Amino acid sequence: MIGRPVWIAIILVALIAAGCGRAPEPPQGKMIVAASIAPLYDFSRQVGGSLVDVELLVPPGASPHTYQIEPAQMKVLSRASVLVLNGVGLEYWADKAVDAADNPRLIVVRTAEGLPIVGKGKDPHHPSGNPHVWLDPRMAIRQVEAIRDAFAKADPAHSKVYAENAERFIQKLRALDEEIRKRVKTFRSRSFIAFHPAWVYFAKEYGLDQAAVIEESPGKEPSPSHIRKIIETARKLKVKAVFAEPQFSPKAAQVIADEVGAKVLILDPLGQPPNYSYIETMRRNLDRMAKGLGR
Ligand SMILES: [Zn+2]
User: Fold this and answer.
1) Angle at 171 between CA 168 and CA 175, to 5 degrees
2) In whole angstroms, how far apart are CA 110 and each of 145, 149, 228, 233?
3) What separation in angstroms does the CA of 53 have from each of 4, 29, 42, 71?
4) What is the pLDDT of residues 117-172, one digit of tens each?
5) What separation in Å is there between the alpha carbon of 217 and the centre of ligand 1?
6) 255 closest CA partner among 217, 285, 289, 221
7) Ligand 1 center from residue 65 Cα (angstroms)
8) Helix (H, G, I), strand (E, B), or coil: what is residue 23?
9) 152 CA to middle of ligand 1, Å?
10) How far is ligand 1, taken at its centre, from the CA of residue 174, in Å?
11) How far is the CA of 131 from the centre of ligand 1 (A)?
């Protein structure tokens, strides 16, 4: 009988001889994490604390829907232990990037996987459904849990710290959920026109109504007939607010708002540098909604 340590040694030697010496190993120093969008970047920093170095892949001002990944970010992926994605078709570039990074120890976590996704198979442009789950803090909690589990898998020695950090942040997300619920209840108007269908989960959770969407396919200009249809709907429903976003031009939103006497509210589904706080971003969004829908 050959003992277990001897077997392990034989396997290791065989692996190294086969030119594949990059077997999984615990991270040295800070664990490198790549996150696709700002909210996931913030969640990753909250869960990882001082144990991780998080790199944001989709830079400020860019939309994840139309983004092209660059060589510098491929380099990050080749050194990272965890890649935090949303999934549900948001990061259309991810599979290719992961292949090209050729990093066998990279753990890829698609944080929206397993959540109740809206619109699956309904839109040929988005066959996997609507990806914007993070804009509902209750869904965000599930994403934080997925990140916690991925970090524990990549760095088991610190799994307890990741669990504690996650729990602390989840408490804050629960408080945010309460705050939104209370505030939306006081809104006098509940219908809005969306720029792109980012606020579907938020609307569903807190009782708002997305009456229409200006740009149904990100990056594709709406046709004049589509804009006319939206104006008609907005008049019929007496819509008071058109949600626009800093990542896209507000031109079409302004045209529609002027036509029906509504306000354009710039809502940010991603967050801005330097601190990318998800909670602060959501509070700002809530303040703006209150301005447009509150009275
Ligand atoms: Zn989007």
Assistant:
1) 145
2) 12, 12, 38, 36
3) 35, 10, 11, 19
4) 998 887 776 789 999 999 999 999 999 999 999 999 999 999 999 999 999 999 99
5) 9
6) 221
7) 6
8) coil
9) 29
10) 23
11) 7
Distance 198 CA to ligand 1 centre (A): 5
Tokens 């050959």 correspond to 2
pLDDT tens string 32-86: 999 999 999 999 999 999 999 999 998 888 888 888 888 888 899 999 999 999 9
HSE of 5, CA atoms in CB hemisphere, 13 A? 0
Q: How many other C-beta atoms lie within 10 A of the C-beta of residue 158? A: 19
H/E stretch holding 241 reads strand 241-244
End-to-end CA distance of the chain: 80
Strands 263-266 and 191-194: unpaired
Q: Could you tell me the pTM of the whole model?
A: 0.87
CA of 76 relative to ligand 1 center, distance in Å: 24
Structure tokens at 153: 């898998």
Q: Where are the alpha helices (DSSP H) in the chain?
A: 4-17, 38-48, 71-79, 94-101, 137-154, 159-185, 200-206, 224-237, 251-260, 278-293
CA 132 / ligand 1 centre spacing (Å): 6
Tokens found for residue 86:
């949303």
Radius of gyration in angstroms for the set of CA atoms belonging to the chain, rounded to a whole number: 22
Expressed in angstroms and rounded, the spacing between residue 175 Cα and the centre of ligand 1 is: 25
Q: How far apart are CA 294 and CA 186, in angstroms?
A: 7
Helical axes 38-48 vs 278-293, angle rounded to 10°: 140
Locus of tokens 């004049």 = 224
Amino acid, res. 80? A
Return the structure tokens found at 278.
């998800």
